[in-house]
């Protein structure tokens, strides 16, 4: 029951990583654009969530109340992605490639969450605690995606900090005005 979720997470990591490298880094050069500072903060936060999720799902079964932590991560991720989408629409024009990748990521997000809910319901019935697990090659792929996500979280966080050296303050959420 968990294997399809892990496969969809690997796909998500690969498409998301390609989006970051091709669109954010190469085409748009977001880490060097002052106007992209709020977007960099959101990207850093999302990368932290996925770093935890990839690594946590690769190596752990989240029993009992801990299953709610995975559900909370999913809610945080969708909140960040919605804010990021609204912010991007206000601050820059996305290429057809970037828009397409984002749509694919949102579709995949729905797919793995639909498959994840029954897993979390099952895990919730277990005693609260972590159980170490191993899913063969999927564990190693998710571990690599976790390390890459956490590294990019730091990189985008440092970019956010460097872009703010002029003392400017801006709102991170487009919902705040």
Tell me what the structure shows:
By secondary structure, this protein is mainly α. The protein has one domain. It contains five helices and two strands. The chain has a two-stranded antiparallel sheet with strand order 1-2. The longest helix has 29 residues. The radius of gyration is 17 Å and the shape is elongated.
A few lines on this structure:
It is built from five helices and two strands. It is mainly alpha-helical and 177 residues long.
Query: Over all CA atoms, what is the radius of gyration?
Result: 17 Å
Shape: elongated
Total discrete domains: 1
The neighbouring-strand order within the major sheet is 1-2
What is the average per-residue confidence, as pLDDT, rounded to a whole number? Answer: 94
Strand content: under 5%
Class computed from helices, strands and strand pairing = mainly alpha
- How many helices? The count is 5
Largest sheet: number of strands, sense, barrel closure = 2 strands, antiparallel
Low-confidence stretches: none
Q: What proportion of the residues is helical, as a percent range?
A: over 70%
SSE string, helix = H, strand = E? HHEHHEH
Compute the separation of the termini in Å. Answer: 42 Å
Strands, total number: 2
């Amino acid at each position: 029951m968990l294997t399809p979720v892990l496969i969809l997470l690997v796909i998500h990591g690969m498409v998301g990583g390609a989006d970051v490298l091709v669109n954010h880094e190469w085409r748009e050069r977001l880490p060097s654009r002052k106007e992209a500072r709020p977007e960099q903060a959101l990207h850093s936060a999302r990368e932290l969530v996925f770093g935890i999720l990839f690594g946590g799902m690769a190596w752990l079964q989240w029993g009992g109340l801990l299953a709610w932590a995975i559900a909370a991560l999913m809610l945080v991720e969708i909140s960040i992605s919605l804010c990021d989408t609204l912010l991007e629409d206000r601050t820059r024009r996305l290429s057809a490639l970037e828009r397409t990748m984002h749509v694919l990521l949102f579709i995949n997000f729905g797919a793995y969450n639909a498959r994840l809910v029954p897993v979390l319901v099952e895990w919730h019935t277990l005693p609260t605690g972590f159980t170490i697990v191993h899913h063969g090659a999927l564990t190693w792929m998710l571990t690599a995606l976790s390390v890459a996500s956490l590294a990019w979280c730091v990189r985008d966080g440092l970019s956010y900090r460097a872009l703010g050296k002029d003392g400017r303050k801006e709102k991170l959420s487009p919902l705040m005005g």
